[in-house]
Amino acid sequence: MNLGRVFTEEEALSFFKMILSCNAYSDILGFYRAYLSETDEFIGMFAMTQNEDYDAIEFEYMLLPEYWGKGYATDLIQTQIQMVRAAFPGKKLIAITDPTNERSIHVLMNNSFTEGTTFINDDGDNARLFVHY
Question: So where are the chain's domains?
Fold first, then answer.
């Protein structure tokens, strides 16, 4: 969802096509906007998508910086786990993050994800796999 840089026009078009395709795949899987329940204020976005490479459902999330460190990412991951477990019992869940993103690693580990392998992603950057069984 986030390569850490601005998308090219071609990448943006491809990304939006992928979002539409993912959202048509399932009533549960897809891309979502995240809002505070108390104020209906937009705080970021998240996704739950089928990852064919790992035969798993991949979690992604991205919050606006002013909402970091306030427990919203933890709440978001917990909600995602509940939604996917209800719809796809027994399915492996994964998340992939930058190995230096200590906040995201903390959120994942606190939600019972286990640390997996580190690899080079399609953009040439290091990435670390986390798995939730």
Answer: 9-132
Highest-scoring range by mean pLDDT, 12-21, 70-79, 115-124: 70-79
Which CATH code fits 9-132?
3.40.630.30
Quote the DSSP letter at residue 129.
Answer: E
pLDDT digits (tens, 9 = 90+) for 26-77: 778 988 999 999 999 999 999 999 999 999 999 999 999 999 999 999 999 9
The pLDDT score that the predictor gives to residue 39 is: 95
3-state DSSP percent of the chain in helix, strand and coil, to 5:
35, 30, 35
User: Nearest-CA neighbor of 103 among 132, 133, 63, 131?
Assistant: 63
| CA neighbor of 34 nearest in space, from 72, 78, 86 | 72
Scan for tokens 């035969």, then name that residue. Answer: 55
DSSP 19-81: HHHHHHH-SSSEEEEEE-TTT--EEEEEEEEEETTTTEEEEEEEE-GGGTTSSHHHHHHHHHH
Structure tokens at 68: 């970091």
